[in-house]
Each structure stands twice: as C-alpha cells, then as structure tokens.
C-alpha cells in the first residue's frame, strides 16, 4: 500500500527533508548522492575529519568558511586509503553533501557553509551513471602556456 505520508527513507541534503524518490524523475544530483552515500558508508573517517576541521574553524572564531577548503585540508594533510567506488580517492562532488550533513548534524551552525543550489539538481539523470576519471591534460597546451608565460 502506498500512503502519501510514507517516505522511502531517502534524505534530501538540499532541503534537509526526507523525500520519496519514486514520485519524481531522478536527477543527476540523485546519482551523485547515491555515490556519496556509498562513499560515506565505506569511509567514515572522512566525516570524522570534516567535523573535526570544521569545529576547529568555529572554535577559532570563523563565522563562515568554505566546505571545499575543509575538504581539501582532508586531502592535503591526511594520507588516507579510501575505498571510493568510483576509483577516486575523494571525489569533489561530495563536499557539498558533507557541508549539508554538517548543518543537519549541528543545526546551531546552520549557515556556517554557504550552500549553493547544485546545477546537477536540475539536470536529468544519465542513462548510466559513469564516474568521472582524470583524463589527463589536453594533448597540446603550447598556446595556453605561451599566454601564461606573458604574465610572468
């Protein structure tokens, strides 16, 4: 029986409410959130570090900060073996989810991170959710390098 008040247990990190995914078309954000959930379950230390580093900023008197900076601190300062399903150590797409999760876990600090609407929330899901891998630099960057050299 499908009750209008019945929820699937999925959580909308964009609006801080449970949602029923079966009643609407999936978006690219849904696919990224699924990978985030898998990553989070496999790598609980990332969440612990995110909370720790964010609380250090709050204790130091910061009223706002960048979740990307916190995320990059985790990358830079901590040598971790993560078990990401998409082959990346720590995917950039996940920092907005950690920021929103921090606000949910610590409502007294809601707004510490300035969350933006994700463009993936307005894009349709891909037929096959393919993780993004580093393709390496473009074959020829000589023109760009010449322009950059002019700035030195």
Give an overview of the whole structure.
With 152 residues, the chain is mostly helical. The protein has one domain. The protein has a two-stranded antiparallel sheet with strand order 1-2. Strand 1 and strand 2 form a beta hairpin. The radius of gyration is 19 Å and the shape is globular. The termini are far apart.
Provide a concise account of the structure shown:
With 152 residues, the protein is mainly α. It has helices at residues 28-42, 44-59, 67-77, 95-105, 142-149, and strands at residues 10-12, 17-19. 40% of the residues lie in helices and 4% in strands.
Give the SSE map.
Layout: E1 10-12, E2 17-19, H1 28-42, H2 44-59, H3 67-77, H4 95-105, H5 142-149
Antiparallel strand pairs: 1-2
List keywords for this structure.
disordered N terminus, 4% strand, 152 residues, 2 strands, mainly alpha, two-stranded antiparallel ribbon, globular, single chain
Strand content: under 5%
Provide the succession of SSEs: EEHHHHH
Number of domains: 1
Q: How many beta-strand segments?
A: 2
Strand order of the largest sheet: 1-2
């Amino acid at each position: 029986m499908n009750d209008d008040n019945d929820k699937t247990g999925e959580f909308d990190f964009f609006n801080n409410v449970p949602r029923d995914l079966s009643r609407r078309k999936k978006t690219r954000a849904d696919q990224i959130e699924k990978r985030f959930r898998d990553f989070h379950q496999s790598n609980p230390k990332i969440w612990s570090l995110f909370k720790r580093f964010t609380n250090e900023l709050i204790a130091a008197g910061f009223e706002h900060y960048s979740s990307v900076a916190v995320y990059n601190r985790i990358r830079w300062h901590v040598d971790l073996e993560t078990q990401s399903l998409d082959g990346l150590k720590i995917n950039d797409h996940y920092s907005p989810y950690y920021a929103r999760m921090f606000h949910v876990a610590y409502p007294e600090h809601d707004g510490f991170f300035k969350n933006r609407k994700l463009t993936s929330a307005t894009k349709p899901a891909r037929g096959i959710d393919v993780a993004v891998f580093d393709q390496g630099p473009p074959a020829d960057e000589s023109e760009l390098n010449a322009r950059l050299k002019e700035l030195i």
